[in-house]
Design a protein that fits this description.
This protein is an alpha/beta fold. The protein has eight helices and ten strands. The chain starts with a strand and ends with a helix. Belongs to the ABC transporter superfamily.
Length: 275
């Protein structure tokens, strides 16, 4: 099987005022073209750190990450990032926010009519053709996030990296955007890596769920295959035995990690009292 992303013995250590802080250690993971993967775990387990390494926003202090068999040494147009904060420029329209990215990637080899066509196609892909002239303050939070996704997709990336993109949205908007994302991924064939705290979101959207151990020095604890056929219907899956089995497996992993954190905290409290 072709490997689009290869992560080999990757680790990340940050230098702090208190000394070295090991955020990640011994991470090994391969991603195939067209695959959707979720990273899940408790806060501080290094999910976003791992995503940033794949994006090339930070470089590993140990190991290596490869994209298309080439070492990831920085950001690249084949890897587009969607953050929880939409990060739109408030003085630009929806169209212009996307056009800026299109021009950066394709501006040297394409003329303005082609760049405009790409921008309009990206807006249409997320159902926002009617909002091209609106500014960020004139649209809802869900629409802003769709513009952010359109901006990422306009660069025609091989890999869509998403850091809790729906975390700040209400439940109904979140569900609608999850369905929209599944449709877009099916249409574009892009590979996706998503950081999430939402178990149902992870099971619904993923082919595999990567479950991280608690930090510091976090690593991959388990990887769960999600054998659910696509396209997926959230209503139909509610009573699906495989869906519920996957959901329970992730919850059990997270509950076990939380229990260990609580046990460690109680031991430290007892030691402090006895000391």
């Amino acid at each position: 099987m072709k490997k689009l992303i290869q992560i080999e013995n990757a680790g990340q250590t940050f230098q702090t005022q208190k000394g070295p802080f090991v955020a990640l250690r011994d991470v090994n993971l391969n991603l195939a073209p067209g695959e959707s993967i979720s990273l899940i775990g408790h806060s501080g387990c290094g999910k976003s750190t791992l995503l940033n390494l794949i994006a090339g926003l930070t470089l590993p202090t140990q190991g290596v990450l490869l994209c298309n068999d080439r070492e990831i040494a920085g950001p690249g147009p084949e890897r587009a990032v969607v953050f929880q904060n939409h990060s739109l420029l408030p003085w630009l329209t929806c169209f212009d926010n996307i056009y800026l990215a299109v021009e950066k990637v394709f501006g040297r080899r394409e003329k303005k009519p082609q760049l405009r066509e790409r921008t309009l196609a990206a807006l249409d892909l997320v159902g926002l053709s009617h909002a091209e002239t609106k500014y960020p303050h004139e649209i809802s939070g869900g629409m802003k996030q769709r513009v952010g996704i359109a901006r990422a997709l306009s660069m025609e990336p091989q890999i869509l990296l998403m850091d809790e993109p729906f975390g700040a949205l209400d439940a109904l908007t979140r569900a609608n955007l999850q369905d929209e994302l599944m449709r877009i991924l099916a249409a574009t064939g892009a590979t996706m890596v998503m950081v999430t705290h939402d178990v149902d979101e992870a099971v619904l959207l993923s082919d595999r769920i990567v479950m991280m151990t608690n930090g510091p020095a976090a690593t991959i604890g388990e990887i769960l295959e999600v054998p659910l056929a696509r396209p997926r219907d959230r209503i139909a899956l509610a009573d699906d035995p495989q869906y519920n089995h996957c959901r329970q497996a992730v919850l059990s992993f997270l509950y076990e990690k939380q229990r260990k954190v609580e046990d460690l905290s109680q031991r430290r409290q007892r030691q402090a009292v006895q000391g």
